[in-house]
Amino acid sequence: MTEFIPPARPILGDEERAAVDRILRSGMIAQGPEVAAFEREFSSHFVTDRPTVAVNSGTSGLHLGLLAAGVGPGDEVIVPSFTFAATGNAVALTGATPIFADIEPETFTLDPAAVAAAITDRTKGVLPVHLYGHPARMGELGALADRHGIALYEDAAQAHGAALGERPVGTFGTVAMFSLYPTKNMTSGEGGMIAAADESIARRARLLRNQGMERQYENEVIGFNARMTDIHAAIGREQLRKVDAWTLTRRRNAAFFDSNLRGVVVPPVAAGAEHVYHQYTIRVPEDRDRFVAALREEYQVGSGVYYPIPNHRLASLAPFAPGLDLPETERAAREVVSLPVHPSLSPDDLERIVVAVNTLARAGS
């Protein structure tokens, strides 16, 4: 029987198991020295020593990061609709209004022209998503933000190690968030990391994650319990030692697909961008859903559709976008398919994926 190729596969080895056991033996399980060490190491590895704050999920990272940056009721934050709902949710949870803008078709990230058209006198900032591991157009978006006196934030949930012009993502905005969910390019089991432009924002984020206090029982603000445990941080520290090699493998796998896939639209990489291929996302213009079903049923190849329903049409977020028309977002939602690109793929797996995609593309799925 042909073995199924999953669309994603977290890699957790003996080192992660030993790290968890070390924390369990220590008796210090909640947030403690392991979290502090993870924050320092993550900062040095990914965001050129910006202050970082570990939290219990990527969504918490977006939410608390925006709050720490001063986003709140009466503000508007421009976001893509073609992304996971957490981006818009985080804005709404601050009391601000998410304003959805269209994407550019090549990279699936915010179109600066669409952002410019969405700016009003209530716009506090713009929150691009480095979707699938490809950087958003931060040069144009940064210039636009400067011109209008608004802030730039970053949703880097899928983009650990991505860069633009050799500048790493997570260093362009006032705040940025990286997700550490199990299917991301590295994981802590669950968690998120906030990267801040300065220590004052980082301190506010630390207060917000810990019931509003820096010292026990001296609560300074109304806060949350969004702490990361030392158990999760220990896993994250081990993953940090491996993620660069995994990224190289993802890029090699993507290059193999680029060279061998036929009849589908493969993902281009913008000039100066360094893609980390959290997803390898193709376009299937005709009958995408039938194509996905045939990959699974006929070839035992898993895939993902990220995202079939744009945020501005979700029941939860549609009230913020009555009558909104985002044509490139809608087209992407109809056409995208993400193929397995994870580091666990064997050469035979890669060949089987190529044969499956090319055969189905020739047959019109």
Quick rundown:
The protein has 365 residues and is an alpha/beta fold. The chain is built from twelve helices and 13 strands. It has helices at residues 14-26, 33-46, 58-68, 86-93, 112-118, 138-148, 199-209, 230-240, 243-260, 288-299, 327-335, 347-362, and strands spanning 52-55, 76-80, 97-101, 123-126, 151-152, 154-155, 163-164, 167-168, 175-179, 192-196, 273-274, 280-283, 336-339.
What would your notes on this structure say?
The chain has a four-stranded mixed beta sheet, sandwiched between helices. It is built from twelve helices and 13 strands. The longest helix has 18 residues, at 243-260. The chain is of the alpha/beta class and 365 residues long. The chain folds into two domains: 14-240, Type I PLP-dependent aspartate aminotransferase-like (Major domain) (Aspartate Aminotransferase, domain 2), CATH 3.40.640; 243-362, Alpha-Beta Complex (Aspartate Aminotransferase, domain 1). Helix 6 links the parallel strand 4 (123-126) and strand 5. The chain has helices at 14-26, 33-46, 58-68, 86-93, 112-118, 138-148, 199-209, 230-240, 243-260, 288-299, 327-335, 347-362; strands at residues 52-55, 76-80, 97-101, 123-126, 151-152, 154-155, 163-164, 167-168, 175-179, 192-196, 273-274, 280-283, 336-339.
